[in-house]
Amino acid sequence: MSVTRPTGFRAAGATAGLKASGRPDVALVVNDGPEHVAAAVFTSNRVQAAPVLWSRQAVADGRLDAVILNSGGANACTGHQGFQDTHATAEKVADLLGISAGDVAVCSTGLIGELLPMAKLLSGCEAVATSLSADGGPAAAEAIMTTDTVSKQASFRATGWSVGGMAKGAGMLAPGLATMLVVLTTDAIVSAAQLEAALRTATRLTFDRVDSDGCMSTNDTVIALASGASGIPVPDHAIERALTEVCADLAMQLVRDAEGAAHDIRIDVVSAATESDALTVARSIARNNLFKCAIFGGDPNWGRILAAVGTTDAAFDPATIDVAINGILVCRAGGVGDDRTLVDLSPREVHIVVHLKSGDAAATVWTNDLTHDYVHENSAYST
Amino acid sequence: MSVTRPTGFRAAGATAGLKASGRPDVALVVNDGPEHVAAAVFTSNRVQAAPVLWSRQAVADGRLDAVILNSGGANACTGHQGFQDTHATAEKVADLLGISAGDVAVCSTGLIGELLPMAKLLSGCEAVATSLSADGGPAAAEAIMTTDTVSKQASFRATGWSVGGMAKGAGMLAPGLATMLVVLTTDAIVSAAQLEAALRTATRLTFDRVDSDGCMSTNDTVIALASGASGIPVPDHAIERALTEVCADLAMQLVRDAEGAAHDIRIDVVSAATESDALTVARSIARNNLFKCAIFGGDPNWGRILAAVGTTDAAFDPATIDVAINGILVCRAGGVGDDRTLVDLSPREVHIVVHLKSGDAAATVWTNDLTHDYVHENSAYST
Q1: Which of A51, A74, B8, B375 is deepest in the core (most CB within 10 A)?
Q2: Structural domain range at position B344
Q3: Looking at B230, B256, B282, which one is the last position of a domain?
Q4: pLDDT given for residue A141 in this prediction
């Protein structure tokens, strides 16, 4: 499990005192090589946190030696001082490890709009640098949690090589990417171009299809590191499949631990004219607060699904669309279908299927219901 | 006040038994002329309720003699039977009043996806037709309430003529239009083209700028009726101003009574490159659940505003944007501004100002916070 599953990696977590809770808040993942191949994808939000701006530059040459991560503060909307703080963090880690600051990615998560307490953070860097170990993955995964209730780790094992990963993410989960920090590791021998292509495919089909609350973060980052320590060169399709499996596993862990959620909702839009149409419809449903409240209330209120579909420009005929909730075809041909009281919404997993009857394309989006606990957690988060 | 404020109109409300609560649920507004000019705007949702489909046809010739409205059922996603039910309702009212069914608009509001109990509704039509009176506006306004806690009425008085209006709307408030039913009346002499143009301008600047929960209904309808009973011809700008004032008044009543809301939030986006940019940014903020939860929690979490702005394609520089909450400039030049603890969020009214610093355009959107009561009301609505 986790980022130290593949050979060639060490990791650690420590408590720097950034969080009021006193829980671990600094993590470090180091690639000991022999190779130091890296790729990353970042939030598509135009307001980007200082660590995103820094890490985008750091990974541009396809090489990273280490990733330093902190919870307890996003270092977003913090101006020049925020960027200098990120730079200083990378320099500190580089000094401690005897590497170049330009090969250190920085990730931060927490409240937007406050400067990080740098003395504490730099002390935390020292703590993690001196406690690195080949089984430090779980400690690193724990140190990046914010409102997560459990740490998220996953791995994929092939013959002679493997992929590991850790993630944090609980609120602000929406595409482009879903809001989160993710570090993936592999000991396969892959080129930077291979890793980049595989990572883009993997995130497009996994994290990008998670839309817990429609809110896109300023700090989303997914970084993949390849050490080559297995000595095994791996073809494109193999690394793509391995990364996709690990990302899918982590994405489902994010959904299951979304802030305050009582239901995990899988929305399949099928028989769409295009995948883009299917995705547009699935996202529109996933972002409809009335629908999400209804699911929380155990109410198979399919009219709210139809109303959400109707706001899109996807190809469909309101007079032929079908909708099933947990296997009951509650809407048939755009009208009243089977008895809605037959729908059982007591399980945590809810399955919506929308039949657009306009083609052969399909897409799936995962979301959560809208609950009292979501409101509670997000109205009290920064205070 | 209300739709019977102008001369030439009668109205009534009655209880047909469509609502479990036993409260009034059928309303009728009749234009006694001498003129019968009408205009209407409808939801832009592609899934449109049967009464919307019917009324769009009825008003196409610029004439309506009456509007029959019911709460307790939306008659949306009800297929051919639903349309036949709407047709039967119009025929019944036409018979009772001795007019043509093609001059009767029908509006319905309530749960989507269930057929109306027609025997009850047709009895209700008889009840309202026999109780029509020149001071029946308030009774009609009460009969169209669903989860509204108060009825909504407004009026505008000019020299010798006036405009009156009533509205219902509490949940599913989002543009295109905001979700609601509205009937406006005037005794001015105006042409159908004048009334249509004035109504489009009025709704664009009022109801279309209300976005309580981002959810667009299948039943939104705003109908304007002109009796000409004042004998006074009115120029374009005068009818436009009068309709806009009444619509703005009703729109603010909708915001103040939005389901479960604890705060009314005015979002001004200023110094935008275009009005469209300003509107896009304002809507993005208005639909951000995390921001809306923060306001509910009394937390001036401006980072969530920046994150919402960053998801748009509006012209702005993340390094220069300013944000004020209730007069405190919490974000200056994209970074930390004045002390956020100075912001007082205890009043119900909250004022957000976003300075994009990209031009001279501006737009305002009204929304509400996201509260426990919103989740409660919308998870229990149909059960």
Answers
A1: A51
A2: 264-379
A3: B256
A4: 93
